Amino acid sequence: MTSFLARLPCSRAEADSAALADEPFPGLDPQPTLVAAETADGWELQLYAEGEPDGALLKAFAELAPSSGSEPTVEALDDEDWVTLSQAGLEPADIGRFHVHTAEHRGTERPGQWPIRIDAGLAFGTGQHATTAGCVAMAVRLAKRGAKRNVLDVGTGSGLLAFAAHKLFPKARLTAADLDPVAAKVAAENARLNGVRAGRGPGAVTMLAAPGVEHAVIAGRAPYDLVFANILAGPLVALAPSVSAVVARGGHLILAGLLQPQATKVIAAYRAQGLTLIDRSPTAEWPVLLFRKEAPANRRAALRGARRETAGRGWQIDTL
After folding, report:
1. How far apart are CA 95 and CA 264, in angstroms?
2. Around 74, how many Cα atoms within 13 Å sit in the side-chain half-sphere?
3. pLDDT tens by residue, 123-150
4. Going by fewer Cβ within 10 Å, which terminus of the chain is more open, N or C?
5. Nearest to 36 by CA among 9, 56, 72, 58
6. Phi and psi for 236 in degrees, rounded to 5?
7. What's the confidence (pLDDT) of residue 251?
8. 189 with 117: CB under 8 angstroms?
9. Residue in 156, 214, 163, 152 with CA at minimum distance from that of residue 182
């Protein structure tokens, strides 16, 4: 049967919202494959279907990205693997000492650069978007201040930030979690491709499927001297109490995924938890925020707070 690809421009919030949906097309079996891709022009939803999508499916697809203001484009595909196709347009990205690439578009790293292969597929984070690149750049600057021993990546997507942390802090214990179990599996495979050992000790990474910090392993490993959270402004505000609670005294928190007009609310939410904003990226549209914490961590409060915050998963949608 011929496969078809439908494309639709979308916003970052619409891309994240579509990716979080457990069943974006209720009643269809099998479910079409839905991918959110970072492109040179922004974000795009891609729908891969066996057989030509009918009007009802295309209407449901278009409703996932009302900001596009256009109808989906549809094209028939040759007999090729859709994951390869979904990454065909992703060019290598150079972020300081890092050269991020896919298997199909490796490019050439400069002398001294660290290559990171990201076969994103169903997960976010290829290094092309300003939020991902900004988080990596902030971590590079932070690494100049000293080593980190215990790192958490909340909303890991493809795992890129965890892998960058592994290069910057090779003796650190890494924990990476994503709300989407598929993303956690993709990140685990990307870890294998990049030679990042799975495990619990120094230099190893544990990949988890978990909303926010609501997982016994995350709570048990706290406090963390570095936490990444590259998600959306709404979830960042909602998760402020629990995420702040697992940051160690003297530890750092890097936040991204917010737009410039949302920064004031996000900063206020974390200042209310006793964190101090010490740096922010100069990017006008997608700021990256760096906080430092002086109060001690509270693992028990973090786990209690996470259960309240993620009850019903109402924090998934960006409403700021």
Report:
1. 27
2. 16
3. 444 444 567 888 988 999 999 999 999 9
4. N
5. 9
6. -60, -45
7. 97
8. no
9. 156
Q: Which has the minimum average pLDDT: 46-55, 136-145, 196-205, 233-242? A: 46-55
What is the Cα–Cα distance from 117 to 240, expressed in whole angstroms? 31
**Distance of alpha carbon 172 from alpha carbon 163, whole angstroms:** 11
Segment 231-267, tens digit of pLDDT: 888 899 999 999 999 999 999 999 998 888 889 999 9
Q: What angle do CA 243, 247, 251 make, to 5 degrees?
A: 140
**Beta-strand pair 93-95/42-50:** unpaired
* Position with higher pLDDT, 47 vs 36: 47
The CATH code belonging to domain 3-86 is 3.30.70
Q: What are phi and psi of 48, to 5 degrees?
A: -105, 125
Q: In the chain, where are the structural domains located?
A: 3-86, 93-316
Tell me which of 102-106, 160-164, 270-274 is least confident.
102-106
Q: Provide CATH code, domain 93-316.
A: 3.40.50.150
Alpha helices in the chain (DSSP H): 12-20, 55-63, 82-86, 130-143, 160-168, 181-193, 216-221, 233-238, 240-245, 263-271, 299-309
**Which conformational region is residue 163 in: left (phi greater than 0), alpha (psi within -120 to 50 degrees), or beta?**
alpha
* 244 closest CA partner among 258, 255, 260: 255
CA atoms of 105 and 118, how far apart (whole Å): 10
